[in-house]
Amino acid sequence: MVGGIVRGASDPAIVSCDVSGAKILAVANQKGGVGKTTTAVNVAAYLALGVRVLLVDLDPQANATSSLGLDPNGVELSTYDALIGQAPLGAVVVGSGRSQLDLAPASRALAGAQVELVDLPDRERRLKNALRELESVKQYDVVIVDTPPSLGILTLNALVAADLLLAPVQCEYLALEGVAQLMETIELVRATLNPRLELLGMLMTMYDPRTRLSPQVVDEVRRHFPDRTFQTVIPRSVRLSEAPSYGKPVLEYEPTSRGASAYADLAQELIERGLLRR
User: Fold this and answer.
1) CA-wise closest residue to 84 among 14, 32, 154
2) What DSSP line would sit under the chain, residue for residue?
3) How far apart (Å, rounded) are the C-alpha atoms in residues 249 and 161?
4) pLDDT single digits (tens) 144-189
5) Are 201 and 166 in contact (CB under 8 A)?
6) Phi, psi (5° rounding) for residue 230?
């Protein structure tokens, strides 16, 4: 049985899921400011209500790490150490303080990894290899990878390691151009490095119903990619913006907010689209 989300007014929960093996989901888009980290953190928090989740922070800004209440400057080991081979990923992973949600934190040193990885063997497969070694240490149902706002070596590592891609797309005109570039990147990765990579869906973010532009952008993306666009739309939300400053996902910070409701719906839709099936 694949579980679903049951939500009361302030008590969201995920029904237990009978799954085996971990699906790796990359949250990526080369454009910045589209809600990648917000999506990675909040999806991880909701899914962890029912299944075991590992959130991997692959962004040198380390925002996913701080969004879960950890200080990137205070972590002993980070994903940087795993990528360059100084430590196994199992030694990097720490508890988030939340049941069933662990974190592979990032540190500022990741910025240097983008240069160091160029000269290392299997530079595009460093994360894939690290996750493969982790499977024998600890089993997760879902691994979610947060990526930097670029198509550099770190994002490429995420796409090569991933089974599935979730692509946040901001509800603005220029985002439409970015979607075309993203689709080209996916096809290139599939053709050369990871033929199993699938686009699970594009997620429209920062939706503002008070403007004419937001509905127009959503309609345009859905017209071109009807089967590849999530039905769930993430609204502009003050609570979503505030939650990271408290080191909490919105599920904990303000579970009855519009943003929390949207991410609960997204988690349900991810399950329905097969995230937890082999």
Assistant:
1) 154
2) ----EE--SS--EE------S-EEEEE--SSSSSSHHHHHHHHHHHHTTTS-EEEEE--TT-HHHHHTT--TTT-SS-HHHHHTTSS-HHHH-EEEEETTEEEE---TTHHHHHHHGGGSTTGGGHHHHHHHHHHTT---SEEEEE--SSSSHHHHHHHHH-SEEEEEEESSTTHHHHHHHHHHHHHHHHHHT-TT-EEEEEEEEEE-TTSSHHHHHHHHHHHH-TTSEEEEEEEP-HHHHHGGGGT--HHHH-TTSHHHHHHHHHHHHHHHTTTT--
3) 25
4) 999 999 889 999 999 999 999 999 998 887 777 778 888 898 999 9
5) yes
6) -65, 145
Domains of the chain and CATH, by start? 5-267 (3.40.50.300)
- Interval 46-71: pLDDT, tens: 999 999 999 999 999 999 999 999 99
Give the total residue count for the chain: 278
Residue type, 113: A
Residue pair 244/66 in contact (Cβ under 8 Å)? The answer is yes
Q: What is the pLDDT of residues 69-107, one digit of tens each?
A: 999 999 999 999 999 999 999 999 999 999 999 999 999
Report the predicted TM-score, pTM, of the whole model to 2 decimal places. Answer: 0.91
Phi, psi of 58 (to 5 degrees): -110, 15
Nearest residue to 174 (alpha-carbon basis) of 208, 209, 217, 211: 217
- 103: number of CA atoms within 13 Å, CB side? 28
